Amino acid sequence: MEFKIETISYLNENGEVNKGYKKTISDELLLKAYKIMQQTKRIDERMVTLQRQSVVNFAMPSRGEEASTVVSAAALKPQDWHFYQYREQGAIFMKGFTIQEFCDHMLLNINDTSKGRQMSNHFGKKELNAVTVSSTLGTQIPQAAGCAYAQKLRNEDAITMCYFAEGAASEGDFHAGLNMAAVTKSPVIFYCRNNHYQISTSNKNQFAGDGIAPRGIGYGIKTYRIDAMDAFAIYDTVQEAREYCRAGNGPVLIEAMAYRMGPHSTADDPSAYRTDEEVAKWAKKCPIERVKKYLIKNKLWSEKQDSELLEALAIEIEKCIDIAKKTPKPGIDSMFNEVYSDIPWNLQEQYEFLQEFKKEESN
Fold it and tell me: Taking the alpha carbons of 243, 245, 249, 252 in that order, is the dihedral positive or negative?
């Protein structure tokens, strides 16, 4: 039996909305999201360059998915929790993570929120309710379900947003997390970024069904599929999903259909598994350009302002990179400090040995 889930879309490639559509995002918030999308793109470009120069050890650009992450975060509240996969830098920027904090993290200096214990591109910040990225795929999904269940038990005015990509939906954690959230009716949005490729494996070689959305229906979860190159579709759907969760109706699954324009990471060569023609076709659907065209058509922005924004971003990013470069790396003592509230005896022995070794070296 053929089963098809339609894709919600309002804003086309020319920056025009469907007839009769009335946007719910304010002009001010839309403009803020646009600026952060541009910021995300420019930072991604610089981090890739810095990785090639051996300044940064690893980077995962999000070109093509800037709206998917930035605008989805814009539809949430500050008290909501975020669980990331690894390509959601736009979301944490929208949540309040600064350019300087991101550069400090990527260069793993003493101001990095993880104190250099994570590899680059594994951002997070406790004060923002932004849970640190974990390299292991899918682990954040049951964790997010548990966080949302705690929010429900405490009757908090907050929900949990769980980001992951379609490849992670092949992990067992996906099924465990969705089932738990559905049964407990916990307020969590499972936001699946379907960008068509799981590193070098295309969707057609990953699963035979109609994407990820039908799996949500199978678990009894309210499900949407959206055009994630369309900022309006993203905002309206996530906002509606949040209200649904806060009303006590349980979780929501959103399959956000986008396209990864760049490599999976700086360790990937996408030319080995896809054509330039395919990438060029998707480049015409650029989410940033769609919003820019809409803003200019509606006299909310101008080319002059856009040039000034890009120039200001370039200056600020370079300034933050320079500061991050000059900031010292964490000392070797950081391997032991702020990991455990009480250092276990075996690590205490190692720590004391290290201190003796350092004394001998200094002598």
Answer: positive
Does residue 115 surpass a pLDDT of 70? yes
Q: For residue 264, indicate whether it is catalytic.
A: yes
Catalytic member of 63, 193, 225, 264: 264
How far the first Cα of the chain sits from its last, in Å, is 78
- For residue 331, name the pLDDT band (cuts at 50, 70, 90): confident
Does residue 358 surpass a pLDDT of 90?
no
Quote the pLDDT of residue 4. Answer: 80
Which 8-state DSSP code applies to residue 352? H
Residues in the chain: 363
Whether 84 is catalytic is no
Mean pLDDT confidence for 220-249: 98
Q: Which residues contact 77 (CB under 8 A, 6 or more apart)?
A: 157, 158, 242
* Pair 199, 264: CB distance under 8 Å: yes
Q: Which two tokens stand for residue 85?
A: 């996969």
Q: Of the listed 260, 274, 294, 351, which one is catalytic?
A: 260
Per-residue pLDDT of 27-70, as tens digits, reads 999 999 999 999 999 999 999 999 999 999 999 999 999 999 99
Burial of 197 (0-12, 13-18, 19+ CB in 10 A): buried
Spot the catalytic one: 42, 273, 274, 351: 273
pTM of structure: 0.95
Residue 273 annotated in active site: yes
